[in-house]
Write a structure and sequence with these properties.
The chain contains three helices and seven strands. The strands form three sheets. A three-stranded antiparallel beta sheet has the order 3-4-5, with no helix packed on it. Strand 4 and strand 5 form a beta hairpin. It has 131 residues and is an alpha+beta fold. It is 24% helix and 23% strand. The protein starts with 7 loop residues before the first helix and ends with a strand.
Length: 131
């Protein structure tokens, strides 16, 4: 429900913004989050040194609203943002797993999506790349 796409003041102070949404969310549409991110890029990018240094969007395949769904919904966003802030390691992908360990996938930095490499176990993240 974010309305103001101008994140320049936050990012200029060194803030890190990690947005995410489940692709299978039946509540607010993931396309609304993508639209907000695109508007933020248009408005904020021309006001800051580098938008990529401080803002990333991740869309989790098969995930409902915050959790559950057919996809892997256990994602360490806190560890990811900690590494980004403490070590200046901006995330390109984040590992997602199912609670029972039966499935893992990379959650890719938007606009990339996880694509099966056509080899390896399709239930394992290592069999996918972000493209």
């Amino acid at each position: 429900q974010a309305a103001d796409p101008d994140m320049s003041a936050f990012l200029e102070r060194g803030g890190k913004l990690l947005l995410w949404h489940g692709w299978d969310d039946t509540g607010p549409s993931p396309f609304m989050t993508i639209d907000y991110f695109e508007r933020m890029r248009q408005v904020t990018a021309r006001k800051v040194k580098s938008l990529d240094d401080g803002a990333r969007l991740f869309i989790a395949p098969g995930v409902y609203h915050c959790r559950r769904g057919p996809g892997p919904d256990q994602i360490d966003f806190l560890g990811t943002i900690d590494a980004w802030v403490e070590n200046d390691t901006a995330p390109e992908s984040i590992l997602a797993t199912r609670t029972d360990g039966s499935l893992s996938r990379p959650v890719c930095r938007y606009p990339a999506l996880p694509r099966y490499k056509r080899k390896g176990n399709p239930a394992e993240a290592a069999s996918f790349s972000c493209r």
